[in-house]
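hey all, quick one before standup. I had two proteins in the batch that finished overnight and I want to keep them in one place so we stop losing track of which output belongs to which input. First protein below, input sequence then structure tokens straight from the run.
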Amino acid sequence: MKQLFLILFFTTSLVVESFSQSGYVSLKECNNDTLKYMEVNFITH
């Protein structure tokens, strides 16, 4: 059980780290276009 928890913890931390390292585009940079903002920050990863 402890090993399963550790595997889940490391997997989660790697996923979070990969998202945090990728570039973030603000809503202002997308000219307040919410659909473009969602596509750039969440869909294209």
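OK second protein, same deal, sequence then tokens:
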Amino acid sequence: MERLRHERENYLEMLLPLVKLGLYTSEEVRKVIDRWTKQDIAKRRYKQEDTTFKMILEQEKEARKDFIKRVSKYYIKELSEYLVFDKRISDTFVWYLNRFPIRVLVWKDYIAFLIESEHANHEVLNAFTKAFKFNPRCDELWTLFTTYLSSMPEDNYRKVLQSVIANNPYEEEVYLMYFRFELDQILTKKKVILFNTDLVEKKEEQIKEQQIKYAPKTTIAHQKLLKAVESLTPLYTILRIIYEEAKSKLKGYHYVVGMIDSVYDVPECEELKKTMLEYLFSMTDKKVDIMKELALTYYERNPQLGFEVLKNPVFNDVSEKAKEKVFNEMRGLSGEEVKPKLPYEISIEKIKKIADLNAKLNVMKTEILNIDRTYIEQLKDECFDIIMVEEESVVKEFIDWLLKTVCSYDTYIKMAKYFEEKKDYKSALNVFDTGVRLGWIAKGSAEFWVEYLLLCRNSGDYKRGRSVHEAMKKLYKNPDEVDVMFESRVNN
């Protein structure tokens, strides 16, 4: 009885400010205290927690609605100290969850209530922290947490994640969230800088055309922007720190696969990705599981990448039966049979994703130099199709590089046609000359010789045409075929 009396006194103290404001009468406050007292007695009943919990929530939510209606008639500057019904609802959730901490749906309702009623961030964070403590692998809670964080300013977001890591140091998901958050921040800053750089480049081009005297100032601005891009490099170290911290605390591998997937298309993270892959491959006791997760993760990014994982020499000692099982599972993801892509098709997909022109050119050259010789001609041909829409200086530079290698007759013809359309007959003829010297494929193509002869004719270089015709008769197996095709093209 003494305890009940003390609780009623506390309740009266909480509710008196509402009487002073004129929101409630003394009689209404007494009824609220009586209701709360009955609720407290009900909480002590054994094995009736679920019923009591639902009853209290229903009663207090109705009381809260009534309170909000009354408040709407008054202008109250600071309302927080009068939110007694919010506190009552919150205390009810806490009471119930202390008894049943693995009830995920109740945690979701509690957190949703805190967010909806605009409780302080630290209260919401505390609720998430406790929820994760008892339900660390609940996807629903992590999804709700991600949604909540997305509405926060950058600094608050970071502090919240750091706090959750401190309270859940052995939970993979939170490290992965932190890793992706910092990566997004870096990539966003990079995107802004590159956008501004592009604007400056366009402005410089306009200045150059109009010969405005302020060009030096713009060039300085451009240099500053390029330095700003370079200044982002140290920020990528943060990602390595998060990875190393996770590695020191966690024993699993799921977070590593997630981090690798996150930085897959980030050139600045190639070394980090390599380090993480080496760590994965060192877990020999989990090789089959790692192969499966890595293959399925890559498959969702690009089916061919998933197939390539199964062919990785690291997994040579994995049974064919295990690989076939993963292969069939990958095919099941799309519901249809997916034909593995050829290496040159994979290279082209990779190239097309790159926005920066210089980076694209470098990747093209690297892919051409490293691809299996079986597919090199197709790759060169596709690369030229991609690059020929760029500025003339860029195309010429790429053609100069291509001509130092052996190309298919189609590629030689395309390069020559490019110059011919621009009336640059000298460069066009040089392409065919190079094809004759280096291109054994070109020498065996009637189409190549026909186009070469037509170019000599169109450029008015008949002397050269006769020389080319003589060379064709020596080098091509069926000169008459070329003559017939040439005459047909000229006459039509």
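Flagging for whoever picks this up: Residues 144 and 460 are 74 Å apart (CA to CA). The chain has a mean pLDDT of 82.
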